[in-house]
Every structure is written in C-alpha cells, then in structure tokens.
Amino acid sequence: MATARKSRGESRILRYLILGTWALVCLLPILWFLSIGFRPRTEVITPEPIYWPTFSLDAWRLLLSDWPIAKYLLNSVLAVGGSVVISLILGIPAAYALSRYEFRWREDIGFYILSTRMMAPAIVAVPIFFLFRSMGLLDTIWALMLIYAAVNLSLVIWIIRSYMLDIPKELEDAARTDGASDLRILWEIIIPACLPGIITAAVIAAIFAINEFLFTLLIASTANAYTMSVALANFTGGSDGIIYNAIALVSFIAFVPILILVILIQKHLSRGLTMGAVKG
Amino acid sequence: MRTDAPSVPAGGVASATPDRSGNPPRRRSPALRKAFPYLLLAPAMIYLLAITLYPGLFAIYQSLFVVKFLNWTWTGLGNYSQILQDREFWAALGNTALIGGISLTLQTAIALTLAYFAYRDPLIRGWRIIFLMPMLFMPSAVAFIWKLAFNDGRVISDLLMSVGLVDGNVDWLASVWLARMTLIVADVWQWTPFLFIIFVAALQGQDQEIEEAARLDGASWPEIFWNISLPMMRPVIVVAVTLRGIDITTMFTNVFVMTQGTPGGATETMSYFIYRQGFRMFNFGYASAASVLMLILTIIIAQTVVKRAFHSGKK
C-alpha cells in the first residue's frame, strides 16, 4: 500500500519534470524571439548575447515606414483565402463522390489524390515556374492562389471524405425517397452534417498555405506578390544584413491568427493533420 | 464505359423499377447515373492532373535537353548519365536520408514519451497548447529563430559555455555534423508537436475499460502502455510517421535560410539541390532530370509505404 503510493508520487514528479522541461524547450525560444522583436537593432547581434535588452519599438517603426507590411499581409490573406475557397469548391464534390458512390477505380482515384500530397514541391517547381511564366502569372497573387489550392486539394478531399463517411446513410435515404436530387442532398443534408470536417479542412489548408515557402519564393519576385512567409526571407536588406527584429515581429503577426484558428478546431486537429486517417 | 459497378446505392438499379414510396421515379438516364460520380470528381482530378501530370511530363521532356535560357539543345539521356555520376546529387540524396532519418527518429521518440506522460494528466489541455506552439510559426520564421540562436546571435554557444560544455564560441557552420545538427534541432523543435498531437488523440481515444481491467490485474502504467496501448495505436503511429517522413524528405526552407548547403554541401537536401541547379545555376534541364529521379523515388515510396500505412489506418 505505502510503496504503491510512494511510487505513484515519484512517477508524478518524473512526469512533471519531463513535461515541464519540454514546455520550457517550446516556450523559451519563442519568448526570446519575441524579445528580439522589441529591442533595438544594436542589441540583436552582439559579441555577447544580451538577455535583458532595452525595450524599443524600432522594428515596429521600421516595418511601418520601410516595408509595405500591410501589402504583404493583404497578399497572404487574399492568396490563402482564395485558395481555400477554390479547394473547397473542387474538393467537396470530389469527397462526396469518394464517400458515397460505388464506381470503378474508386480506390485508385482516391489513392492518386492522396499521393499528390506526397510530391515534393521541388519536383514540380521548374515546370510550374515555366507554366506560370508562359501564362504571364509570375509575381501575381493569382498564381499563388492556384498553387496553394493545388497543394491543399488532396488534404481537403481526404479530410472531408472522412467526415462524410461518418454520416449515417439513413439521413439521405429518407430525402432520396422524397425525390430529392443527389446535388440537393449534397447541399442540404451532407454539407451541413459534415460542417466540422469542412471547417477543419479549411483551417488546415489555410495554415499550410500561409506556411508555403518554395513555390512562393519562385513565383513572387516583388512586393506585388510577396506573402508574409517569403517576405521574411527578404528582410535581409543588403548592407543592413538580416533585420532580425523586424523578422521577429512579422513572425508573431502571423502566429497570432494561426493560434486562434487552431484553438478553434482543437478537437479536430489530429484527424485533420492525418487527413482523416485517425479519428481523434 | 463497361457496366460492372458492383453495387449502385439506392435507386441506382434504375429508372425501370418504380420507387418505393410511390413518388414518380426520377427521370435520369442510366448513363448519366453511372457517370455522376466521375462528374463530381472531374474538376478536382483535372486540377490535380494539371499540377502533377503536366509538370511530370514537362520535366521528363525538359530533362532531355541542355537548357540555357531560351536555348534548348537536345542531349537525350545526357543529363541522366551526368547526374548519376554527380557526387553532389548522391550527397544530397544521402543528406536527405540521414538528416531526415535522425530527425524523424528523434521526434517520434520524444512525441511518444510526451504523449505517454501527458494523456492522463489533468492539465492535458494546457500542455497541448504549449507543445503545439512551435508548429504554429511559419517554417521560415522558425528557420530564422534557430539561425539567430545558433549562428548570428551566438546564444546557444553562450549558454553551453555558461554550463561549461564548450569553451569559446562554436562555429556551427564549420563542421559537417554541427551544421546538420542545427537543421535537426530546428526540425525536431518545430515538428515534434505534429506527432504529439496525433499520439495523444490516439491514446485518449482508446477504450478506457481495457486500461482499467489491466490496472485491476496489477499492471503498472508503463506495462499497460508498452503491452496494450502501444500495440493498439500502431496503425496511428504508422500513418503519422509516414506523413511526417514524407514532409521531411522535402526539407527546403531550413536549408535555404540556415545553411544554404554549407559546409561543402554537407547539409544540401534533394529539394535544395534541385532549387540550386535550376534557379541559382540555371541548369533547368539538369534540375528537371533530378526532379524526374526524385519523382520516381516518391512514386515507389507512395506505392509501398504510404498505401499500406493508409490501409492500416482506416480501421
């Protein structure tokens, strides 16, 4: 009895030691990076690191005066928002077909869709670059919208498909005997019933799109199409070196909305991240 | 189109049979019925084919040429024979496997350990939010965090010095293994949460009664985890690790921001190799040949590992 309690107490200490350590591993770099965003440039790169810097809004002023940060933010929002809409419009009917109909090659088509997620951006980077160049879309947010939608389509389809599979068949059978068409059933029954799945898919697609780097790097060459993610890599303003405090601020500006979105879909996160394969 | 679809759902057998409820049967030709799911899929399929099949074919075609800006000179399989003898190509392949393999092993082990300790903890919601945070930063931001911490800001060296592990400043980009380690640290820091979230959800979703029963039989928590929970969550682990593994093989951003492949190509990954050949040296034909080889590898991996992983995950 006594020993059992003792070992349980020890294991709790061990547990909090391990979890606490990892929490520090997660939080300390973030807090330190936040402090980078609010210190003067002279205290960022120094022979001896400065842990208790003077507070300064230099980076904030620099961002507002020298960099079209609002434009980058707007580009991100438009390209990401547009891409999510495109992938939902294309993805919902596809998910419906995969989850509700028996037809030839269904498994193969489903797997092909899944496998497009496996393709490294670098593999298609050169052809996509030439494709957009020939269409005159380089350095536009239209190109970003199209490419983000393509990158995310497989995940959107698989997540929504997984949620649609959970909807009991009886629900639509009743409507079908009442003579509703398949498209009306999709619109009026299936979509409302799997709304959590659609929202999860949209949020995860948005996060992946905000993060996308390689395609954006190749497509965007001026402020015309720079997004937050790639703009970071360009705060390396020539003779000034890398402007870390501005980078830190921009990182946090992008971090906050993502954190809020993720908290909203917390319960569905693991299912979304595994493209519906794991029901959390 | 042949007509041997195994079983068409409600109402599919068709127009001839009157509807159960006595409503007028929906007038729709059997051909349209049969085509309907394909029509629903068509827009998405066309879109996906446009960004996978078209670039694939384009890459194969372009890989047969030496491309210097607008000049395409036919070279047949020249790029391929050259690339297979290119030590940088093999190094990039090796680096991707090595850095990716170590990184994936570490984050799987850490995520499993954390999930084991966290999933029964009353504070699990709090832990989850905290552990999730690194993943919510843009990858380019994370790359800059670690670039500053390791190289430019010397914070890591300073901390290691203060506990006496090193004396003097460490030049992380000077040594092959130190440079690789910085990439591994950045990847593990950012992506352990991905696996952690999935593992915790899987553990929480397991049948509590089995645990209770084992507990009553006198099994300890580590025993339960090792003998019951872990085998039960195997399909989940396989899916999660496969997805993460695939993303790791495409590693680009950290290399681009942190090391640019230095020292001497020791941190150059496949993605960075293709980028450098194509967009730094403008050897587009050569880059395309590398893309085609990587595509073949991807297809092999997808057909074997991924297909199996997702079948076991569906249970």
From TrEMBL, chain A:
TM region positions: 13-34, 72-97, 109-130, 142-164, 185-208, 214-235, 242-265
Q: Which CDD domains match?
A: TM_PBP2
InterPro entries named in the record: BP-dep_ABC_trans_perm, MetI-like, MetI-like_sf
**Keyword Cell membrane, does the record have it?**
yes
Keyword flag Transport: yes
Give the membrane topology, semicolon-separated if more than one. Multi-pass membrane protein
Q: What is its main location?
A: membrane
Compartments in which it is found:
Cell membrane
Q: Which family does it belong to?
A: Belongs to the binding-protein-dependent transport system permease family. MalFG subfamily.
Function according to Swiss-Prot or TrEMBL: Part of the ABC transporter complex MalEFGK involved in maltose/maltodextrin import. Probably responsible for the translocation of the substrate across the membrane.
The molecule here is called Maltose/maltodextrin transport system permease protein MalG
Organism from which the protein derives? Paragemmobacter ruber
TrEMBL record, chain B:
Region annotation (Disordered) maps to 1-29
The protein's predominant localisation is membrane
PROSITE patterns recorded for this chain?
ABC_TM1
How this chain sits in the membrane, per its record, is: Multi-pass membrane protein
Q: Does the keyword Acetylation apply?
A: no
> What CDD domains would the database entry show?
TM_PBP2
Entry's transmembrane regions: 36-61, 89-117, 129-149, 177-203, 284-306
Signal peptide annotation: none
Q: Return any one Pfam family short name.
A: BPD_transp_1
Name the domain of life: Bacteria
Alphabetized, the UniProt keywords read: Cell membrane, Membrane, Transmembrane, Transmembrane helix, Transport
Localization terms from the record: Cell membrane
Q: Where is the ABC transmembrane type-1 domain?
A: 93-305
Q: Which family does it belong to?
A: Belongs to the binding-protein-dependent transport system permease family.
Name listed for the protein in its UniProt record: ABC transporter permease subunit
